[in-house]
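Propose amino acids for all 186 sites.
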């Protein structure tokens, strides 16, 4: 490579690096100016000790799987605001898996679907539970009638108890198929 090409290449890389560094530096200075003023204050000792005044502690069970680890949920005005592991729980003995630790994030997620939706003309529309169950049931029966019972695959869940798994297997047999498995194997 010629000397001119090397100089031009290093100049281009230099400009890009300079712009990246300047942008990051500007953001850091801006953040420091905003946070350095009265926008941020130190928490009082009372706020540190009790960040959610008026909340109550509710003993509950993690729903991520069927193990049933203990959670102590902190609830303020009907909203789950914080959680701790239940130290005295007979199953989990004060520990959780990574999914159980994030249970609160699942509940508070803005992406959580809270009612049935149906895509109509490319847009999601809210429908009633009765409509959703009827349409899904009709579609499943139509598929089985036209293609046989093996058209469906039933996948169990780690959230199911032993009894729920028993009934789920019975439902697949009633449907007429042996296509059933558990999500942990997939």
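Proposal:
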């Amino acid at each position: 490579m010629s000397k001119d090409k090397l100089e031009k290449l290093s100049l281009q890389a230099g400009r890009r690096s300079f712009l990246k560094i300047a942008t990051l530096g500007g953001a850091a200075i801006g953040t420091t100016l905003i946070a350095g003023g009265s926008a941020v204050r130190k928490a009082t000792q009372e706020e540190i000790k009790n960040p959610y005044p008026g909340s109550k502690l509710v003993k509950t069970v993690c729903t991520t799987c069927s193990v049933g680890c203990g959670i102590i949920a902190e609830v303020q005005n009907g909203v789950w605001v914080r959680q701790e592991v239940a130290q005295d729980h007979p199953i989990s003995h004060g520990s959780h898996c990574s999914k159980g630790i994030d249970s609160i994030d699942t509940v508070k997620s803005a992406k959580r679907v809270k009612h049935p939706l149906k895509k109509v003309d490319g847009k999601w529309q809210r429908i009633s539970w009765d409509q959703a169950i009827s349409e899904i049931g009709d579609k499943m029966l139509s598929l089985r009638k036209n293609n046989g019972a093996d058209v469906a695959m039933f996948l169990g869940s780690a959230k199911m108890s032993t009894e729920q798994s028993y009934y789920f297997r019975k439902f697949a047999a009633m449907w007429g198929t042996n296509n059933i498995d558990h999500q942990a194997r997939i």
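The two ends are 53 Å apart (CA to CA). The chain has three domains: 1-41, 52-108, 117-185.
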